[in-house]
Design goal:
The structure is a single chain. 54% of the residues lie in helices and 12% in strands. The chain starts with 12 loop residues before the first helix and ends in a 10-residue tail after the last helix. It has 16 helices and ten strands.
Length: 484
């Protein structure tokens, strides 16, 4: 039987996020939105996700080809995908990047697989946003909201990893040596895609696939572009559904492209048209944000391991007295608790670095008002937002500013490495403290252990992220230093 955690006050908003609580003095309206979002997400996770977590994981172990339909239905019913969309586009997000990140920790503490179930669509949205294609962003937001309220469900994914090129396609210094198998070519009216993508989060539930692929494999930095491919496109097929060790509720898929035509209006970013490197800044921007999210995700897993071990220690005896009253158990528990706070402190520091680079915490509150939304979606404003002239300005700004965002790159990689390593460490400690019970599926700790490992691998392996830190911190000031 699952060990139920009954001390949520140990992780109250004020105790967990002292720095954010302090910000209420200077940003009371902003932090009121963040606090409200946090409390709502905590209630949702405890009431709707926790009861399905272990049973879903066990069912997917028995049938690796299945989809976590119960959890997916819960996500749709409670509008979790619309909560990824800011109010300015008609969504239900509070518009703050702070809420996205701290809610990832809260959700992962209950079920990392549910975070994975949401993350494919979320990653696709972030990647599309960095292409500055406001026309497709408007369309994506509208279809996502419509899919949750009226059906059918509309989701996207983000496809970059290939069978023989994973981590090395996330770092341009390595991409030129990557064994890429995918390549696009121009044809009248669009492009044709050929190749394979693998380990794509949410691939089997996506309505459209955001595919990252070069026009020339010999020049990925200069030609890698972004394409939006409908699931029913001619020449596209879904391959196998990966039988993952952990985070099983979040599916991972193989995508196959064989002479798959993509019309011009579905080319989200045609990199060669800009006559300057645009893909690397886009990639750095996406990873700079999503690695912080993964760090919070991993921190949540580590926290879940602590909660599971604490509850076990409170309710089980050793040598005649409760385990929690033994000094060795207290030492183990406080070390796990320290790990949680270490990981959280680093991802919050990375979050502040991201906010400083982007000029704020997100969209101002007034942008979510019906009046502003009506103005924003009016024909004259929409015509300007969808113009290529505005997009060129935004792209130029993004490319220029990215050169000054090395601090974000360093902190996001630091947060991802620290969070996932400490999360893995906590899961190991929890199983050790619980003994034989810890390896039983029903106790919850072994699921957390399996879930934690993936956070050390995706968004660039921790080995790559260590090199990334060297590149964007030390190598920037040490002349002649070579990293890759």
């Amino acid at each position: 039987m699952q060990v139920e955690f009954d001390n949520p006050d140990l992780f109250s908003f004020d105790d967990s996020f002292a720095s954010l609580a302090f910000l209420e003095r200077s940003e009371p309206r902003l932090m009121a939105r963040v606090r409200q979002s946090f409390e709502e997400n905590r209630r949702f996770c405890q009431e709707y996700v926790r009861p399905l977590s272990l049973s879903t994981d066990l069912a997917l172990q028995k049938d690796p080809n299945a989809i976590a339909t119960e959890l997916l239905d819960v996500a749709v019913k409670h509008r979790r995908f619309s909560r990824l969309i800011p109010g300015i586009l008609g969504g239900m997000s509070d518009g703050t990047v702070i809420s996205y990140v701290i809610n990832a920790e809260e959700t992962a503490a209950v079920d990392a697989g549910f975070v994975g179930l949401l993350s494919g669509h979320g990653l696709g949205m972030v990647a599309l946003a960095y292409t500055m294609n406001l026309r497709l962003m408007d369309w994506l937001a509208k279809e996502t909201i419509k899919g949750e309220t009226q059906g059918p469900l509309f989701l996207i994914d983000c496809a970059i990893t290939e069978p023989s090129a994973g981590t090395d396609v996330e770092e341009m210094q390595l991409a030129t040596h990557a064994k890429l198998v995918s390549e696009a070519r121009r044809v009248p009216g669009g492009a044709v895609l050929n190749g394979r993508k693998c380990f794509i989060s949410g691939g089997h539930t996506a309505s459209h696939h955001l595919v990252i692929m070069p026009f020339d494999r010999r020049d990925p930095a200069g030609t890698t572009s972004v394409f939006l491919v409908p699931k029913d496109a001619k020449g596209f097929t879904l391959g196998k559904l990966e039988d993952k060790m952990g985070q099983k509720a979040g599916s991972a898929s193989e995508l196959i492209f064989e002479e798959c035509f993509v019309p011009d209006e579905y080319i989200a970013l045609d990199a060669p048209k800009y006559q300057r490197p645009v893909f690397e800044p886009l990639l750095l921007g996406v990873l700079g944000a999503t690695r912080i999210y993964v760090a919070a995700w991993a921190t949540g897993i580590g926290r879940g391991a602590f909660e599971t071990a604490l509850q076990f220690a409170k309710t089980n005896k050793w040598r005649g007295k409760l385990l929690i009253n033994h000094q060795f158990a207290q030492k183990a528990l406080i070390d796990m608790f320290i790990n949680v706070h270490k990981a959280r402190s680093v991802y919050l520091e990375a979050l502040f670095a991201l906010m400083a680079a982007n000029g704020g915490s997100g969209a101002p509150e007034f942008t979510g008002s019906p009046l502003f939304q009506a103005f924003f979606q009016s024909y004259p404003v929409r015509k300007v937002r969808h113009s290529e002239k505005l997009r060129s300005v935004l792209m130029k700004r993004a490319v220029t500013e990215e050169k000054n965002l090395q601090r974000v790159q360093f902190y996001s990689s630091l947060a991802k490495v620290v969070g996932s390593d400490l999360g893995m460490d906590n899961c190991h400690r929890a199983i050790e403290l619980m003994g034989a019970v810890g390896v039983r599926h029903g106790a919850g700790a072994e699921k957390l252990f399996r879930d934690a490992k993936l956070c050390q691998i995706f968004e660039g392996t921790n080995q790559l992220n260590r090199l990334h830190m060297m590149q964007h911190y030390f190598a920037r000031d040490i002349a002649g230093m070579e990293v890759f």
